[in-house]
Amino acid sequence: MTIALLASLWAPQMNGDLFLDLRDSLLLSNALGTKINDFYYRYTLYPAEVFKSLDQKVLKTCSLDEVRKKPLKKLLEEKVLSCDYLCIEGKGTVDLEIRESGRDLILERRGRVIFKSTPNDFLSAPADVLRRFSSRTDRYPLFRQFTYDGLLIGFPVTLYLFLYSILLLPLTRCFDLRTASVTAAILCFLSGILLLIPLWLGNGGNIDKNHLDRLLTSGRWQERVAALKFVRQNWLDVSVFPSYQRMLSSPHIPERYWLTKALSVSRRPETFKDLLVLLDDPSPTVASMAFQALGRRGDRNAQQEILKRVETSDHWYTQWYAYRALKELGWKQTGYR
Asked: Average pLDDT in the 147-176 region?
């Protein structure tokens, strides 16, 4: 019954931003949570790569050694590269092998033929063909769904049972088993409420556009973050509020994170310089959003600044966002090995 009550209270929070809200309110609001967050963004790529579909992978490889027509091979190289497949020459295991067979192209994965396509069909819509190839070679869709459901449902239930067991043992030394069980359940319920309070406080409620300036200068960072979310969702220019400058050096990571996302909407020249500063933010989550913002703004002058940081970065997460931003700005990778 206690689990059901907690589930009903948490249900309104189950939206697309739940994990971001949990990160902002429960992790990035304290030093220990920030370390857990940093660990997640630095190391989780590697195990996740094992069960991602090809479309979701950061690095994908392709072999065109069996394509004999040089003009066709050159066109195919350009198309697969635009879809993030790196062409590899010589022997070795690759994610995708394309070879000619009469008038058709045969798409294989590790020696297994997946399907055929004509050159015209492939060259006219390479993304669609490769997406279909990824879908047909995907072995773990159910496992990914199970993992997501486990995080959303299984992890909270496991955490509840773990806390219940920890509390029950000492309580049985003071009370009979029935009283100890009820007391442990009540304490777990109160713990669930305490974890929910930061999400309620960070929700911001209904925001009036006319009061944005007051919220952006609020003494509570949670209210400032709620105002920044409103600014971004409604495509407002945050730079018209002078108070935004102080947020650039805020000690609160969620505030800098949502400010960066809000700046992606602005087109003022001075905010371009602000985003360049945020590219060097010590938090990888903030720096990544700065790369994303520059890509969405579409200013090609940012390419060199992004490339400069890619060359010196040792963090896969920021590198990934930098690469995606470069592609949005029209940059094309020309070399491969």
From this structure: 85
Rounded Cα gap, residues 169 and 183, in angstroms = 11
| Strands 60-66 and 85-87, bridge-based pairing | parallel
Q: Give yes or no: residues 304 and 281 share one domain.
A: yes
Domain boundary among 118, 137, 156: 137
Please tell me whether residues 300 and 249 are part of one structural domain.
yes
Q: Is the pTM of this model over 0.85?
A: no
Q: How far is CA 229 from CA 144, 261, 284, in A?
A: 29, 8, 19
Same domain as 116, residue 219: no
Domain that holds residue 75: 54-137
Out of 137, 167, 192, a domain closes at 137
Q: Tokens representing 224?
A: 């400032």
Which tens digits make up the pLDDT trace of 133-151?
A: 999 999 999 988 888 888 7
CA distances to 107, 211, 301, 305 from 54, in Å: 14, 46, 31, 29
Query: What are the phi and psi torsion angles at 87 (to 5°)?
Result: -80, 130
